[in-house]
Amino acid sequence: MSHPCRLDSAPPWAAAPGRRLRPVEQVRRQEDTDSAVVLGLLQLGHRLDIEGDVLVTVEEVCDLGDWVTSLVDPTVLVWRDSEAGDRHLHISARHDRPPVRGVITVSWRTAIRHTFWSTLLHGEDLARGTERDLRPHEVLTALTRTRMSTAHEP
Q1: I want to staple 86 with a disulfide (CB 3.0 to 4.6 A). Which of 98, 111, 129, 136 is the partner?
Q2: Which residues are CB-contacts of 120 (< 8 A; sequence separation ≥ 6)?
Q3: Within-domain flag for 19
Q4: Could you tell me if residue 107 is inside a domain?
Q5: What is the pTM of this model?
Q6: Start-to-end CA span in the chain (Å)
Q7: Domain count of the fold of the chain
């Protein structure tokens, strides 16, 4: 099953005749620039009210713990990329009050490293292209059992 946040392939419209695709790195760099501009503009506003879904990308694995404890009734999905085999974790929850009315999904910016992944899945692994639902307390337990510095090791 393909996850909606994954970039496994270009959308069908991207390969239209005469359209040149940009390398993934260039697209990601542009997305970072676009995000910085929007964040800067949002800071100019007096009040923020979002009607729709929001994807938050965090830089540090410990930030996942902050989100899993802050969101009401979150769901946790871990999945493994079908081609590269990278490991990913998303935390999602419905939020129905300002400043966001929609689904908030939190994702760690990079693929999850083996040490944290192994602790999270109790020494098991997922086959490429598969996913598993976890409970929020499993993320918190893995975070406390894994020193933050080792979460970034290969």
Answers
A1: 111
A2: 78, 89, 112, 134, 138, 139, 142
A3: no
A4: yes
A5: 0.66
A6: 26
A7: 1
